[in-house]
């Protein structure tokens, strides 16, 4: 049976005074699908994310979320007072997720149990990113929303983190919405890419978008910087027109 999208934005526009932040943007996220929104700074990605989360209403357009949807959100950054006595365990359990899921999400995200006793301010950049992801997963989300999830990681760390996101999608069957300004690695594991610069510049499979002139125009000289290539994820599945996951062996036998 066809399922409704987890999230559907149709012709969404946002205007602040005379400034247009978004202009007739469409976006759809399905179960089991990783949708990546990319674009330069000032492209409207943060505004789009706030609308997706229900934190802001569009000036025009339609926003639909599946009924009773559970959303896990990993913010771009959280500033925590260094004098605040807050351990990693306490930081995680403040997310209002069931504590009996704590060990499972620690295992999934690679957060060592020994880190739970450490003040959250003492976690390294890479450790804190995984803690934020674990916090988002505690709610057992239908939709996982990630804002610049690998911003504090080096190139190798980014690749590893995006592989982790793909494995979580496969295990949970959840939809994933990734928002980033990084144009070289952020397509990792994506099933669908939406490139915006206030409006939708191009959209499609990563291999289609990486050849689109509107995507290439975001780079100096009209091509990606030397040495920076789009990371490619090897899928063992494909998707129907509605975003449902179909193992390749099943598609071949169909």
Walk me through what this model shows.
By secondary structure, the protein is an alpha/beta fold. It has two domains: 7-70 and 141-253, 3-Layer(aba) Sandwich (Rossmann fold), CATH 3.40.50.300; 76-140, no CATH class. It has helices spanning 45-53, 88-93, 102-109, 125-137, 155-172, 206-209, 213-216, 248-253; strands spanning 7-16, 19-29, 34-38, 60-65, 71-74, 143-147, 175-180, 192-197, 199-204, 237-239, 245-247. A six-stranded mixed β-sheet has the order 5-6-7-3-8-9, sandwiched between helices. The protein has a three-stranded antiparallel β-sheet with strand order 2-1-4, covered by helices on one side. Strand 10 and strand 11 (245-247) form a beta hairpin. Helix 3 crosses helix 4 (125-137).
Which short descriptors sum up this protein?
single chain; 254 residues; alpha/beta; Rossmann fold; 2 domains; globular; disordered C terminus
Describe how the helices and strands are arranged.
Elements: E1 7-16, E2 19-29, E3 34-38, H1 45-53, E4 60-65, E5 71-74, H2 88-93, H3 102-109, H4 125-137, E6 143-147, H5 155-172, E7 175-180, E8 192-197, E9 199-204, H6 206-209, H7 213-216, E10 237-239, E11 245-247, H8 248-253
Parallel strand pairs: 3-7, 3-8, 5-6, 6-7
Antiparallel strand pairs: 1-2, 1-4, 8-9, 10-11
